[in-house]
Amino acid sequence: MTINRAGKTQGEAPQPAPRSNRLEAGTFPYMLILPSIAVILLVVGFPLLYSLYVSFTPYELLRPNSLNFTLGKALRNYEKLLNDAIFWRSLGNTIIFLAVSVNLSYLLSLALSQLLARVTVGQGILRTLLMVPMMFAPILVGMQFRWFFNASVGLVNNFLYSLGLIQAQGQIAWLVDVPLGMFSIIVASVWMNIPVLTIILLAGTLSLPAETFEAAEVDGASGWQKFRFITFPLLAPFSYIALTIMSLDIARAFDIVRIMTDGGPAHRTEMLWTYITRLSIENTKFGLGSAMSWVTVSLSVLFTLYFFRQLVKARIVR
Amino acid sequence: MLIRRLFFVVLALALLITVAAAQDEPQYAGLDMDLSGITIKMANIGGGTYEAMYESIPIFEEATGATVEIVALLDGFAIDQKLKVDFATGAADYDVAWDHTSFVAQYTPFLLPLQDHFSEEELAPFSPAILDAATIDGNLYLIPRHADISPIHYRKDLYEDEAIAAAYMEATGEALAVPTTLEQIDHQARFFVENGHSTYGYTLAGRDEALNGRFYEMVFASGGAMFDENWEPVFNDEIGVAVAEMLHGWYSDGIIPADTTSLVWDGVAAYFCNGDTAIKLEWYGWYAYFQDPDNCPAISENFGLARGFTGLSLGGDAVRPSGWAGAHAFSVPASAPNPQAGIQLIKFLSSERVAYEEALLGYLPTRDDVWDRVIADAAESDRPLDRERLELAKLQVAEDFKTPPLIAEWIPFSNILYPKVQAIMLGDIGAQEGLDQAAAETRELMADAGYYG
């Protein structure tokens, strides 16, 4: 006697499974993932909903009694934010930072990955060296670049001074002046981002089919044409993955901003992360900080939805 | 027989002398309790020159059997944030926390009142002005550790050079002398920079509550105030505007460093240590560091101290010497697992002996008995400034000691005001407009906190 996959002996007419068995078969997979769902709800869902509730209260960290919901005042935090010039400034700075940092990191990584793909000797060493920035915690990256860009004893000013490009060591206040403050933070962020992006794009480049390039060479395509019409389009899935990871991972730059400028001076480099921290922790206005976090999360969700719609559209067109 | 009697007399005398000498030595306190098996956790200030202060802790551990675990070693602003979060989340599971008179009003519901744990005799040696600043609504929340007030620090070579003095007289019509007013600082700082005698004329902390404190100090020294008696913000009056405009002028003319708005205490000290700044206001805690030629060859034995400046003459008769002050201190969280052990550790760390040892590092004591001792020591010193600085400090603590408003809103208020002062300094906004904006935001903060009924 052989048993088929449904557990019936061959030759018997198939009978509908008893109702209880069918239920078990239907619910069993859900029961398997139930612990995971419970953990996610507990660790992610509950805090999210709780912070949403807090955002409708005037809760202050050191005044436990202020955690009370009053219908008439529920939207006060949101009203405050909409009228808060620093919030809008920090939002603008964050968008500029994201746009420039992600795109610049991508372009430099793309260039580096193409160069690395052509290296025939010592590629392993180069790859290892490339990964060095990944070994640094963002807070250390921030400290390192704060020193580089320090006005009086920093490496950058010292270098410019020794070349005779500036007349005094403290002449350029990199972390203070507009737009040098944002520029300095972006440089640090790009330095930290490049290794991951380059590794992904290099892996993509090395996996591209050689025949396509050979055919292009037979047709007399130049190096630029091969990159423009073969490499770049074929790398698109890798680029999307790399850019998505980068966009989601960019919040790690909080440590860099916090250490290098802490959003200052005078809110010149204030970003959503630093401003939320200032409101919630330093000023103890946790309700207001939660409201700002929810506005930020909502904007991030909208941005992500837009990004994925564009991504899907681009793939269909291609 | 006579020889035997004589021997005992000499022995007794020797013992008496030894006991008397021992009594004259500063004594530790807090060692009279068996704390075997107890781990005392503490959150401490670190960095700068602070960490040498914790070298006495092993003595406490050995005598009491306790183990002291330092769970955090952060700068003052970072500890403030840690305490807020830990108190709010119930995670303040340590027995001793570093604290400051400027910060403590925020935490009072989460701290253990200490007046019942220290006898009158134990509190008697502490400066009454500092104990007052540590007492809120009749409860003592802090045991002070170091007094925090700033004298003027100046580079001596600039004031002892006859050629510079003559040039200054010719340029300004004034004799070059150690400044006593804010206007003199302004004139001299500009002169030193414009004539290449010093890279910068003045240096001050330019961010966080540190900038707020320095601004507050310049305002009240000029006869102004941050708030009136009804807690209405008044720092946007003509005195506040004049001070803010002076800061802007210093920044735009290169009198203060281009990265002033990034500087807190360590950064300010570094400029002076390198000899790059002529004048600054700074607390006494860096004294030993500045005098050490290994640390600061440019200014070791080449700087002087003077009483804080009086403010702008605009304030008329209301001008007074600057003296933004307070005290570094210890407190005990109400949630401490071993509060009694924590209190014993505080008794030890604030004892005459430990306070004396820390005073030798340059910190200002908060105990009168230690003051007497260090002044007596300094009288023996070859360096006159060792004695002069203590006399000056004692004068400042007695006459100029001025805490900021001891309210829970001081830090949130600072976070409103200091970015506006930065913006004014950098030229992003006019002084009057910037201060008016800060005043409006401050009023909203105070209204939300219930100050206006």
- SS-based class of chain B: alpha/beta
CATH topology of the domain at 86-136 and 182-317 in chain A: MetI-like fold
Cα-based radius of gyration of chain B, to the nearest Å: 24 Å
Number of domains of chain B: 2
Oligomer: heterodimer
Low-confidence stretches of chain B: none
Please state the CA-atom Rg of chain A, rounded to the nearest Å.
27 Å
Question: What amount of the residues of chain A lies in strands?
Answer: under 5%
Shape designation of chain A: flat
Estimate the helix proportion of chain B, in percent: 40-55%
Supply the CATH class of the largest domain in chain B.
Alpha Beta
Total count of strands of chain A? 0
Which percent range describes the beta-strand content of chain B?
Answer: 5-15%
Question: Largest sheet of chain B, described in full?
Answer: 6 strands, mixed
Parts with pLDDT < 50 across at least 5 consecutive residues of chain A: 1-11
Written account of the structure:
The complex is a heterodimer of chains A (318) and B (453). Chain A is mainly α. Chain A has a domain at 86-136 and 182-317: MetI-like fold (Orthogonal Bundle). Chain A is 69% helix and 0% strand. The longest helix of chain A has 37 residues, at 19-55. In chain B, helix 15 (368-379) packs antiparallel against helix 16. Chain B is 46% helix and 12% strand. Chain B has a six-stranded mixed β-sheet with strand order 2-1-3-11-6-12, with helices on both faces. In chain B, strands 8-9-7-10 form a four-stranded mixed β-sheet. A two-stranded antiparallel ribbon of chain B has the order 4-5. Chain B is of the alpha/beta class and 453 residues long. Chain B has two domains: 21-148 and 326-391, 3-Layer(aba) Sandwich (D-Maltodextrin-Binding Protein, domain 2); 152-324 and 409-448, 3-Layer(aba) Sandwich (D-Maltodextrin-Binding Protein, domain 2). The longest helix of chain B is centred in the N-terminal third of the chain and has 23 residues, at 2-24. Chain B starts with a helix and ends in a 5-residue tail after the last helix. At the A-B interface, helix 12 of A face helix 3 and helix 17 of B.
